[in-house]
TrEMBL record:
This is RING-type domain-containing protein. PANTHER family: RBR FAMILY RING FINGER AND IBR DOMAIN-CONTAINING. It comes from Adineta steineri. Keywords: Metal-binding, Repeat, Transferase, Ubl conjugation pathway, Zinc, Zinc-finger. Residues 9-123 form the RWD domain. SMART domains: RWD. GO terms for biological process: protein ubiquitination. One of its GO terms (molecular function) is zinc ion binding. It comes from the Eukaryota. Residues 170-275, 174-224 form the RING-type domain.
């Protein structure tokens, strides 16, 4: 087999393994693969004194460039990109790939991917001291000291987005009506994380409001969960402008009545009690 045939075969194999995470970049000799890490639970991100447990990390990008001497003589050229790796750890990883014992005539990209995957298993530590001289141009997009706060936050945001996406795409059971329906038809309460199908939650909130309960008394329907629903969540659940206005009036009136130093203006309409 010629080098070109082996390269074509390797591309076919990688494309079938990585599917949408594989992308040809230029003619047939350059491509990128988005590599997902297999995280061992609980996976921890550490940053200064903070630690967060997550389940999802953004993919790592490996860019491969074939040349005519691969795989007969040398490994292909590559570039590595990952925004939550420090510049120096990306550079170290470049060196690891350089030190990989390449066997002439054998393709190596899949083995490289396995090697990269083993870089992260159960935690990452975002370090603020990373002052080594960086000169390996193949290490793209690593973080430096200045933007480390943003990196930490964007990893948390990414994890939350993936978690929501997974929830929306799976079947879930409503704790009120016990129906099993797709997650996208559910509302998850921000304060406690309990979730209910839209129509059950809508009915529950409307009935509770119509019974004159609001504020701390309008809480998550889960038995023993007393987390009150915040106004924006109530608005989203009931989808009823008139009812929401009534809720706002009740809340305001209640708040004013509980203040000792408020004197009602006899000419103001707000003096009238909500019936
Ligand atoms: Zn339900
Ligand atoms: Zn709850």
């Amino acid at each position: 087999m010629t080098n070109l045939e082996k390269q074509t075969d390797e591309i076919l194999a990688l494309r079938s393994i990585f599917d949408t995470k594989f992308r040809l970049l230029d003619d047939n000799n350059q491509y990128e693969i988005l590599i997902d890490f297999d995280l061992i639970e609980p996976f921890i991100i550490r940053y200064n004194d903070e630690r967060t447990i997550i389940n999802h990390l953004p993919p790592f990008t490996l860019i491969i460039h074939y040349h005519e001497k691969y795989p007969s003589d040398y490994p292909p050229s590559f570039m590595l990109s990952c925004f939550y790796f420090s510049k120096s750890s990306l550079q170290n990883l470049c060196q690891k790939l350089d030190n990989y014992s390449f066997i002439k005539d054998e393709v190596c990209v899949y083995d490289w991917i396995e090697l990269i995957k083993h870089e992260i298993t159960n935690e990452i530590i975002l370090q603020t001291k990373d002052d080594e001289q960086i000169n390996d141009l193949r290490a793209l997009n690593g973080y430096s000291n200045e933007n480390i706060d943003q990196i930490y936050q964007s990893l948390i945001n990414y994890n939350n987005e993936q978690h929501d996406k997974q929830f929306r795409n799976q079947l879930q059971t409503c704790l009120i009506c016990t129906d099993i329906i797709p997650g996208m038809d559910f509302i998850r309460l921000h304060r406690c994380g309990h979730f209910y199908c839209r129509s059950c939650l809508n009915n529950y909130v409307k009935i509770t409001l119509n019974n004159g309960k609001f504020g701390e008394k309008l809480h998550c329907p889960q038995h023993q969960c007393q987390k009150a629903l915040p106004p924006n969540e109530i608005k989203q659940i009931i989808q009823d402008a008139q009812l929401y206005q009534r809720y706002e009036r009740l809340t305001l009136q209640h708040a004013l009545e509980s203040m000792n130093n408020v004197i009602w203006c006899p000419r103001s309409v707000t003096n009238r009690k909500e019936k």
